[in-house]
Amino acid sequence: MGFSSTSKPSTLTNQVWDIWQNYKWDIGFIDTLPEYMKFIFKALLDIYREAEEELAKEGRSYGIPYAKQMDNFECILKNAKSVKATETIVRLMDDIAGYKFEQKRGHNPSTVECYKNQHGVYEEDAVKELLLGVANSWKDINEELLNPTTVPLPMLQRILYFARSGHFIYDDGHDRYTYSLMMKRQVALLLTEPLAI
């Protein structure tokens, strides 16, 4: 499964959260939806059906039922350390990468500024401490991946992938989200020079 196969559902899911929460992925509910939501709901179900078929060919379709069950997502949101760790990683990496730019624009104080002011330290020391928080969050993710309990491993892996993406986007103090041209080389490598397996 490529990047587009995994990004399509999350894009559509953001648009149809209410559908997901209320209709539990059952095509039988499509007639109860407003006309403008029917297309999105069907497209979302089709994406998961296609993914399930593709993964079944590889003998790996076990994760699809998890992705369709709201109860599993509620369980993750309540119990998974890796969700909190991922939030921490992405938030801190984003703030470290963009705090100087945001200061110039007069935005709200970033985590870097708040830490600096609260602890009376220099900017560089605040960044080092926040990066330590990122490192500790990675330990939490790794711990949960090595010892999965209530959350199925395939779902924990998706959380890991999101954390990796966020870390990459804001790594080395660069904001590749705002300045997406910075990712041009990596995307080109991925699409034009794939690794041989």
UniProtKB/TrEMBL annotation:
InterPro entries for this protein: Isoprenoid_synthase_dom_sf, Terpene_synthase-like, Terpene_synthase_metal-bd
Keyword rRNA-binding assigned: no
UniProt xrefs under Pfam families: Terpene_synth_C (PF03936)
Occurrences of domain Terpene synthase metal-binding (ranges): 24-69, 71-140
Molecular function terms from GO: magnesium ion binding; terpene synthase activity
Record keywords, A-Z: Metal-binding
A biological-process GO annotation: terpenoid biosynthetic process
Record carries keyword Metal-binding: yes
Name the UniProt record assigns to this protein: Terpene synthase metal-binding domain-containing protein
Lineage: Eukaryota, Viridiplantae, Streptophyta, Embryophyta, Tracheophyta
